[in-house]
Amino acid sequence: MVGSVTQTTEPAARDDSPWTGHEAPRPRRVRRIHRAWIVAAVAFVTIIGGAAFNALPGLLIDPLHEDFGWSRGEIGLAVSIDMALYGLTAPFAAALMDRFGIRRVVVVALSSVAAGALASVWMTAAWQLMIYWGLLVGLGTGAMAMSFSATVTNRWFVARRGLVTGILTAAGASGQLVFLPLCAWIVDRHGWQPASVTVALAALAVVPFVMLLMRDHPADVGLAPYGGEYVAKPAPASGAARRTVRVLFDSARTGPFWLLAGSFAICGASTNGLIRTHFVPSAHDHHMPITAAASLLAVIGIFDIIGTVFSGWLTDRYDARRLLAVYYSLRGISLLFLPVLMQATVEPPMVFFIVFYGLDWVATVPPTLALCREQYGEDSAIVFGWVLASHQVGAALVAFLGGVARDHFGSYDVVWYAAGALCAMAALMALMIRRVKGLPADAVMR
């Protein structure tokens, strides 16, 4: 059984044992799941609860435009603030988890998401959208970003790190799979306000699981990390903000950081900023029903889970640079075909695109995190947080500029083509990342 430890208990020896002269019973073997897998499961559910809000913005662009008369650029700006703060919060969140513990940071983050989603129900002006969606939700979701996954993985696992990274990354897609069709149905039948309330309740529902089952470090329960040796829990790290900034300045002096950050910015631009934000309104421009377009995004979530977990498995075995180059190249090619696939009905070529794009959606995360770990060691979680910040800055720019392009050109075609070209650049950047000295070319990333 994967992820289990075996405990052996032997019966006490007695002279008058009834088994004298006969074969004694064999020691009973008790197989238990290692606590690391329980912590990973709680992290998975937490990311799903936090990701519920990410399913919402693309569904609400048209309803908010119709209800308040706000331009798509204004709405896109609020989404871009959310995405930028999501990214900029991530590296500080990793350091705060070192200082205050995972549980405390995540509970505060979930509460922030719920507060922002609930407050948006009563908004009447665009600036309130930017405060509630942009600030509160951006800070909350940023604290549960991929640096949270990196922290859990680094503390609780030595073996199977690539696989666990893939599974936790897929949690965001799982949240999309669960909430996109539900929120689309709610928006279509009851309006956008009940959908926002649903997201708030989803975030709050996760809090008890975090409080009861999450632990900050294996030493808290007297265990070694899965696949490793026992390590004493380090003292709380003071100066979280100072350490986060110091790591940024140190890593920014190295070439691999900028290649990782640049390629991951393009990753964010071509996924969260582009497809997640603008796919539904673009499909609606071609008279596709909003529920059908949202269902297609949910299908992306299904194959995203498969692709990301498989990418984690591949990252444990193959060169992460080459994997990234392949992922970005295939993504760019698929985006070039998207404008001709948009129709009022869902045709087989569009289904093929959705499946193909879903497999590649965040398959880039496990190899990117592996390269951060290879290049930056103990600071890799914080470095990855900054790389993730670039991912979200790229997403934020395209979320805003995509809306502006739609207002100006009357369609999203130019945005799809530009994103395809950017993905080709990302593939080249991945191949340019230098290998750490002493690491063989066929090294297995673990």
UniProtKB/TrEMBL annotation:
<feature type="transmembrane region" description="Helical">
    <location>
        <begin position="256"/>
        <end position="275"/>
    </location>
</feature>
<dbReference type="Pfam" id="PF07690">
    <property type="entry name" value="MFS_1"/>
</dbReference>
<dbReference type="InterPro" id="IPR036259">
    <property type="entry name" value="MFS_trans_sf"/>
</dbReference>
<feature type="transmembrane region" description="Helical">
    <location>
        <begin position="350"/>
        <end position="371"/>
    </location>
</feature>
<keyword id="KW-0472">Membrane</keyword>
<feature type="transmembrane region" description="Helical">
    <location>
        <begin position="163"/>
        <end position="187"/>
    </location>
</feature>
<keyword id="KW-0812">Transmembrane</keyword>
<dbReference type="InterPro" id="IPR050327">
    <property type="entry name" value="Proton-linked_MCT"/>
</dbReference>
<feature type="transmembrane region" description="Helical">
    <location>
        <begin position="414"/>
        <end position="433"/>
    </location>
</feature>
<keyword id="KW-1133">Transmembrane helix</keyword>
<feature type="region of interest" description="Disordered">
    <location>
        <begin position="1"/>
        <end position="25"/>
    </location>
</feature>
<feature type="transmembrane region" description="Helical">
    <location>
        <begin position="193"/>
        <end position="214"/>
    </location>
</feature>
<feature type="transmembrane region" description="Helical">
    <location>
        <begin position="36"/>
        <end position="55"/>
    </location>
</feature>
<feature type="transmembrane region" description="Helical">
    <location>
        <begin position="383"/>
        <end position="402"/>
    </location>
</feature>
<feature type="domain" description="Major facilitator superfamily (MFS) profile">
    <location>
        <begin position="38"/>
        <end position="438"/>
    </location>
</feature>
<feature type="transmembrane region" description="Helical">
    <location>
        <begin position="131"/>
        <end position="151"/>
    </location>
</feature>
<feature type="transmembrane region" description="Helical">
    <location>
        <begin position="287"/>
        <end position="313"/>
    </location>
</feature>
<dbReference type="InterPro" id="IPR011701">
    <property type="entry name" value="MFS"/>
</dbReference>
<feature type="transmembrane region" description="Helical">
    <location>
        <begin position="325"/>
        <end position="344"/>
    </location>
</feature>
<protein>
    <submittedName>
        <fullName>MFS transporter</fullName>
    </submittedName>
</protein>
<feature type="transmembrane region" description="Helical">
    <location>
        <begin position="75"/>
        <end position="96"/>
    </location>
</feature>
<feature type="transmembrane region" description="Helical">
    <location>
        <begin position="105"/>
        <end position="125"/>
    </location>
</feature>
<dbReference type="InterPro" id="IPR020846">
    <property type="entry name" value="MFS_dom"/>
</dbReference>
<feature type="compositionally biased region" description="Polar residues">
    <location>
        <begin position="1"/>
        <end position="10"/>
    </location>
</feature>
